[in-house]
User: Fold this.
Amino acid sequence: MKIRFWGVRGSLPTPGPETARYGGNTTCLQVVRDDGPIIILDSGTGIRALGDHLLSTGKPPFDIRLLITHTHWDHIHGFPFFSPMYIPGGRVEVYGVGPLREGKGFESVMRDQVTYSYFPFENTMLDNVVQYRDYNKMFPDGVERSFELCPGVKVRLKLTNHPVYCTAYRIEADGKSFVFSGDHEPWLSANPAAENPDTIALYAMMNDRFTEFCRGADLVVMDTTYTQAEYESTAKPQASKRGWGHSYFEYNIPLARKAGVKRMVFTHHDPTRTDAALDRLMQEKYLPLGQAEAPGVEFLAAREGMILDL
Ligand SMILES: [Zn+2]
Ligand SMILES: [Zn+2]
Assistant:
């Protein structure tokens, strides 16, 4: 199993010379295997180049499983531009969990992007190819469970702490394990001294569960949008990033050690983070911190085009 990174930017695309090396496309990962269907995680703008790559290197029609973490724009707004779904005879199964807000389910949010209001195409024209699988309907007793995505590929789901329903994925195949956090903020209190002790205990338990979800993985690709200073900042006018649903380097590095993972990749780079700034953070701060706090774990920053062999 290999993981190929097609989009590593958080929140919105960031084209331009200052982000060209790590890449400006939003989240999209591919699980590359020797056989079976094509497996893709999230459909940020990175999925456009992936679709074009499939068309230029593979033989259509394609059999595709697209696993969505959540329906925030940066994880779905490349979807209408995924060219393989316009090829008759193909099959694109789109999995995800609905926002459960405003009465909208997963399928309607995905479909709404491909309507004439936003796009020169109507979703009903794709109905012979694209099928939607809503975890809430597949698993009415709770989505935190495992299922077989296709022969030889086991998928486990974990709800994360995010302003909308979001699932982390653990994919086990070919004797290897890979975790993608999706968007995830640690459960933390802004003011532990004033917090109810039961709440503190509950947060600790929720964080432990996420750590267990990552246990022993060969690779964890982790939402690392912020530094701790950015996360906790009280500077005006932007103030703190608490509650925005994202994690930070100083939290994720000890998590990698506690979970005993082999490799952790920081992704969902903040849109304001230039290549030079990210290089500086990694070289001067977070690679040394990783060596000190989680010896034996390999840390790296996600880069568009990167392929990791598990
Ligand atoms: Zn995001
Ligand atoms: Zn999000």
